[in-house]
Specification:
437 residues; alpha/beta; Nucleotidyltransferase, domain 5; DNA polymerase, domain 1; 3 domains; six-stranded mixed beta sheet; two-stranded parallel ribbon; 7% strand; HRDC-like_sf; Exo_C; Ribonuclease D; HRDC_dom
């Protein structure tokens, strides 16, 4: 473990270095609109043979791959990829339809996955695309996330358009990111937009890498990218129905049971039809029906939304769900069982010493964040800090505090660079609170 004093000094030295660099920052260049790919919009590869040729095309190039995927969030239940955009130096850009080729996706896309395994992937906001790419057999052997790199560099705006303008002097036009990419055929202007998403991604990777090198954060970024690449995800929340918008207004167990049954019924329909749940029935309608608890078609269709033709045809489905809720012998409690700390707002009354620890830790981390120009949530997960402060028990020997914290963070998968910076801060915070109490 790094010596706390040395780690603190390193943070201070980095802060001085960053302050000097900030003072010398040139003004952002005037942006040049980027309206079309330099080589034109490539033909969409749809058939198995076309996808195989796209793989050969990519193999003819060299170096990292710029990778992006378009989904149909808000339109479809699934999170699958409906379009793949890949660019490589010496090869150019390919656009691949991963759903319309009439074959098993894993088999049809295997040649592309094989080529992609030969070098680094460059993505922007990789955590959004990696899951849908993994579904079709594509997993990176090395990763660079330009959005995460922007966060580590201390940029306040890290969306692709903002970073491209800041670092490359180019203006990406607003496009069709929120469109229904599951529709076919895909309009030409959509394909143009999609190709532009990877057009300058490799250039952006080199530009932000240079910034991180100047700031002394290259190794930090490498650790974060590898963690993201190998991250297996968190367990799915058991009671997902509790995320229904407006549920905070519901406290009665019987009404909560109605929300649960309506949500579960909607989820089953949405999954089967691959339609976004909100397009089957809005959350507000679920809350209204659960609260009113109608027992006839007339009463149900008198409620907002349910009076429409589509909902009238499904009235018996929603009434059956409400009937099941009324007859349940296991109504849910008003709060979901949790194996972690309660909301921090409740700490002052339930465990004031933990609240004091959390306040001191947050203050120390906020100061550290300013000194190294990295958002506090990227320095260390707020959830890890809450768990540490809630469960903390001071060791018998005060000098072992930093060692205990170090081990706690290691078990929580906190990366080495994060531990080097945060262990001294957390040690000081928790030690100070102990001395005051």
């Amino acid at each position: 473990m790094a010596d706390p004093h040395e780690a603190g000094t390193a943070a201070d030295q980095l802060a001085d270095q960053l302050a000097e660099q900030s003072a010398d920052q040139p003004a952002e260049p005037e942006a040049t609109p980027l309206l079309a790919p330099r080589d034109g919009v490539p033909e969409l590869s749809v058939s198995v043979s076309e996808i195989a040729r796209a793989a050969e095309f990519l193999a003819s190039g060299g170096g990292p791959f710029a990778v992006d995927a378009e989904r149909a969030s808000g339109f479809r239940y699934s999170n699958r990829a409906y379009l793949l955009q890949i660019r490589r130096a010496g090869a150019g850009t390919v656009l691949i339809d991963p759903v319309s080729h009439g074959a098993d996706p894993l088999t049809a896309l295997a040649p592309v996955a094989e080529v992609l395994a030969t070098d680094e992937w460059v993505l922007h906001a990789a955590d959004q695309d990696l899951p849908c790419l993994a579904e079709i057999g594509m997993r990176p052997t090395a990763l660079y996330d330009t959005e995460l790199a922007g966060r580590l560099a201390g940029y306040d705006k890290v969306n692709l358009a903002a970073m491209v303008q800041r670092l490359l002097g180019l203006q990406l036009m607003k496009g069709h990111g929120a469109a229904d990419w599951s529709q076919r055929p895909l309009p030409p202007e959509w394909l143009n937009y999609a190709a532009l998403d990877v057009e300058v991604l490799l250039d952006l990777r080199h530009a932000i890498a240079s910034v991180l090198e100047e700031q002394g954060k290259t190794d930090w970024a490498a650790q974060e990218f590898e963690y993201l690449r190998t991250f297996e995800g968190t367990p799915t929340r058991r009671d997902r129905w509790r995320r229904t918008s407006g549920i905070h207004k519901v406290r009665d167990p019987k009404t909560l049971a109605a929300v649960r049954e309506l949500w579960t019924t909607r989820d089953h329909i949405a999954r089967r039809r691959d339609i976004a749940p909100g397009r089957i029935l809005p959350d507000a309608a679920i809350i209204n029906a659960a609260t009113a608890n109608p027992d006839t078609v007339e009463k149900l269709t008198a409620l907002p939304v349910f009076g429409g033709n589509r909902q009238r045809r499904s009235a018996h489905v929603w009434l059956d769900a409400l009937a099941r809720a009324r007859s349940t012998e296991d109504p849910p409690s008003s709060s979901e069982p949790s194996n972690g700390p309660p909301p921090a707002s409740r700490w002052p009354r339930r465990k004031p010493e933990a609240a004091a620890r959390l306040e001191a830790a947050r203050a120390g981390l906020a100061d550290l964040s300013k000194r190294v120009t990295v958002p506090a949530e990227n320095l260390i997960s707020p959830e890890v800090v809450r768990r540490l402060c809630w469960d903390w028990q001071s060791p018998a020997a005060p000098e072992e505090t930093s060692t205990v914290i170090e081990e706690f963070l290691r078990e929580a998968k906190v990366r080495p660079w994060q531990r080097d910076l945060t262990v001294p801060v957390l040690t000081e915070a928790l030690t100070t609170v102990v001395e005051q109490t």
